[in-house]
# Entry
Amino acid sequence: MRNTLFTAPDVQRGIYVNGLAGIRPLIPTDPDALEAAARRRMSPEAYAYIAGGAGTGLTMTANRRGFDPHQLVPRMLRDVSVRDYSTSLLGMNLPLPLLLAPIGVLEMVHPAGDLPVARAAASLGIPMIFSNQASVPMETCAAEMGDSPRWFQLYWSKSDELVVSLVQRAERAGCRAIVVTLDTTLLGWRTRDLDLGYLPFLQGRGIAQYVADPVFRRLMEQPEPALPGRNVTFQAIRALIGLTRRFPGSFWGNLRSGAPLTAVRKFISLYSRPSLTWDDLAFLRAHTRLPVLLKGILHPDDARRALDAGMDGIIVSNHGGRQVDGALGAIEALPGVVAAVAGRVPVLMDSGIRTGADMLKALALGASAVCLGRPYVYALALAGQAGVVAALQHLAADFELAMALTGCAGIREISPDLLHRRAGQ
Ligand code: FNR
# Structure
């Protein structure tokens, strides 16, 4: 059965009435408190991987601070008694202009990985973008989602055959768009992970889309050389056992065949293609009938090139500040991209969305919808599927109030007029 996105007053009432009985909300409504609570539940490695960014974290700061100069100007005496914040995007009807950003390796915070997120998203009709680095194969998640919308995010690997296979699987799994993430042709310099010496993929985490793929399985038949410089320590043996246990199939069979290690090595050698250029996009265009969106665009000229390449949408994003330290905040990049695109395709905004006001500001600056990232992972860590549902309901309620209290009864009423740019910014 589909949960409803309760109206904001219902959500508030539920929380306050529970408060009378001494019951606190399932997860904190304040985004910083949510992160702090989740941190206490997570291993240091998981927290570092999820919360961390590139270098000194300047881009993550820019993603948040970038909202500040844009101030909302609420308008009065507009009838907002009947509110409808549904919208349509690439032929899909959404209950609100929100999607779940693709986030890999969710098994780090929940044993069932992506599944509780897929169930939560489907229960609310909010689209989930399956990550190429998911912990659960897309087919398994899709099977839990009925006809609820999902998209697939692609990392363009060194094997075009694998790219085609992933995209075809996404089509068969009922995904309604392909998102190509462009900003991760190499892994950013992530100091928190480096200082812990921790990369989940080496433990066989976050490679479920690959090991479930027939082309990848075939490619595994040409094994890669061992990774250099590993010492046989207690930790290394433990990691090998964990990897072998997590791999599909029987533990002893996996240990004998060495398939888990072979898969990790193959993944490392294939996962991204730094040689990718604009010309390659025609290949993808020719291999799918789904709309293709580019994620990671920050420069207006790149947005124009995306249009020239026949892309169907753009996601303005800096990968949550995980790739380039000192990059501009995504919200700062949004107006330039919106102007370059001039309404020809939808522009989505991702990186730094935490509140309903953030959503409203992004929409007022011309975004068609936004993607929610880390907060849903924190909610998953704290309370599984129910936590993700709560996080989405909190954000939806916050958005509803931001809209209603600035005088907008529907998405169409949002305009740049709602924003004031703080002097000197
Ligand atoms: C990501 N992101 C990401 N993006 C993508 O295209 N494919 C992926 O597999 C992942 N994996 C991933 C893991 C983790 C732990 C994080 C935090 C992020 C980036 C993600 O889609 C999104 O761009 C950011 O999360 C947005 O930043 P905020 O709003 O979460 O800070």
Observations:
- Residues 49-50, 63, 101-104, 131-133, 153, 181, 295, 317, 319-320, 322, 350-353, 373-374 surround FNR (CB under 6 Å).
